[in-house]
Amino acid sequence: MVNHTKREYPMKKNIFVCPSLIFLLISVSIIIISCSGSTQQPTDVELLGSIENAFVNVAKRSTPAIVGVSSFRRSEDPRSRRQEGSGFIFREDGYILTNEHVVRDSTVIRVRLLDESRYEAELVGADPNTDIAVLKIDVSKGLPVLPLANSEAVQVGQFAIAIGNPFQLNHTVTIGTVSGIGRAFLPDVGIIRYQDFIQTDAWINVGNSGGPLLNIHGEVIGINSLIRRQDNTPATSAVRAGAGFAISSNLVEKIGTQLIANGRIIRGFLGIGMEEVPQGIRVLRVWRNMPAHLSGLQRGDIIIGYNEKKVSDSDEFKMWIADSQVGKASKITVLRNGHERIFNVTIAEMPALQAGRPVETDSVAWRQLGLSVRKLEKGDYERYTFLTDEDRGVIVDMVQENSQIPQGSLITAINGQPITSVQELEAALQKQQELEQFTLDVKSSHGVEKITLPKLTVPLEP
Questions:
Q1: Catalytic residue among 29, 70, 86, 101, which?
Q2: Which residues make Cβ contacts (< 8 Å) with residue 52, sequence separation at least 6?
């Protein structure tokens, strides 16, 4: 849901209420009045006026914390260089929440506030798996923020208020209801999606992406993310009829907080394809050299338990795996040929490609060792069970198939030379290009070991 038009529109503040909603409100007021014999009850106009004032007050209180987001990327097509969306202020010191797809591949991001002040924004972190991103602007004073509601308490039928910038019509307000909760319908295309959408009939369209969906108290229940058309595909261009979907506020808060703390999300990974069946979750595919394969899980196994919890919902199971610490031993109970079996599985970090992160394959480490590495970050100390605060090195982000180096392990030295950064590893490999093999000091959930790798002679495909 991005907008590439460059037309300018005057600022408008619109409240759109569908006719069916007006009829509902009038009907409710008539029923209330007719059921009471007291002459002190408000008239239908007074009751509607009270409801109208509630919507107006939510709009007045909320719009100062809602921003327009413009992002610019390099492209041969001028129409795709600029992307438009919305966002809202998450913390008063300038942290802003929006959609990842609004700022994807951007080289420059600009934020526009209600008073028309404009800022260059820094991308703090983005998570393609949930379509959530965090921006930061430098401000000299505290900004107004929007509080987040507990999305577990959201109920179908309650009011929903969307505010954003569809078609650059700044701070447009639309009103509807929550049509559904717990929606998950997007396929895993290359990456593993984590979905908990709130469905709404509040009108949203191109430019609303990243803006808030609010309850009647002015609390954020979700981030507006996409529209679903009749053919069950997201609407991404012209005006589309379809249901709107917002990422639930609980998921938004969880991911946003982690992105601010670590710049990215570290998720646990099992390495299977799956489908739900009446008994639990059937294993459709087992990826080689990943935790499920290494622990003995097989295609056709039906997973019925994870760490003493019953497994029945695939989205819930994905969340449990994602939240597990890297290197943690977990118990998975399966049905195999009608018999229960328990497997001890050591959870790994989700590979970069499945996490939607770019992988550096144009490097000396990839060409000579078949390894893509990244710097050790503060979040790793919290999610990797085998790391201590004293550890230094680089994390293995991706490996060639059948590599002796475990994906997610820490390289601390090469040929006896300590390594503390990606640049040091690259420099050491370039300096020793004449060598035919390299000995790496590696730390992982298997312990500390020295692993010797032969120098690769054929370029690898990522």
A1: 101
A2: none
